[in-house]
Amino acid sequence: MLTDLTSSLICNLQNSSRVFQSHSLVPYNSMNLSILACLKKHVLIEGFSALYEDKTFKSKKTCSPSKIQVKLVYDGLNFRKARILKIKRISKPGHRIYLSYNQVKNFAKMKTLNGGLVLILSSFGLITHLEAAKFKVGGELLLFYTL
Half-sphere exposure of residue 81, counting CA atoms within 13 Å on the CB side? Predict the structure, then answer.
């Protein structure tokens, strides 16, 4: 059984984009939905949808989502370059990393991100480092993406 579904999401997306698949199946949970919504907002994926699985338990039929189907985006027609190759999980279940507002403000000023994103889990939900600096909040440093 998988214990870290966010790492599984990142691994599945990277592996699917390396072999130029058009879709990828990732585990369903609310954190993964938030991450995918943020990636879609920044045009790193084309879209996603929940896949439902029928389960029957003693004459009770329930329908709950079990996987998320993600449509990947590639640049160029002949030289298919994946946009999602350089995502790294920073804060892990055994080693959580938190940033204060001052540290987030320094991330927002950095030029070394090269147009990349830092996803932060804060009291406002899952937001980028630029939004966190604008709202003046800190939080858990979740993902790092570079172009």
Answer: 6
| CATH no., domain 86-147 | 3.30.1490.10
3-state secondary structure of 29: coil
Q: What distance in Å separates the CA atoms of residue 146 and residue 13, rounded to the nearest whole number? A: 15
pLDDT (tens digit per residue) in 5-48:
999 999 999 999 888 898 999 999 999 999 999 999 988 899 99
pLDDT in tens, 72-100: 988 876 567 887 878 889 999 899 999 99
Q: Please, which residues have CB within 8 angstroms of residue 93's CB and are 6 or more apart in sequence?
A: 3, 4
Which neighbouring-strand residues pair with 57?
Answer: 60
Topology (CATH level 3) of domain 1-84: Ribosomal Protein S8; Chain: A, domain 1 (3.30.1370)
What are residue 60's DSSP bridge partners? 57
Let me know: does 20 contact 76? Beta carbons within 8 Å: no
How does pLDDT run across 36-63, given as a tens digit for each residue?
999 999 888 999 999 887 665 555 556 6
Give the relative orientation of helices 5-18 and 30-41 as an angle to the nearest 10 degrees. 40
